[in-house]
Amino acid sequence: MKLGKAAGPDGVPIEAWKVLGDLGINWLTQFLNRITKEGDLPERRGFMPERSTTDAIFIARQVMEKYREKRKPCYLAFLDLDKAYDRPPRAVLFEALRGSGVSERLTTVIRDMYEGSKAAIRTPYG
Question: Its domain of life (predicted)?
Answer without folding.
Answer: Eukaryota
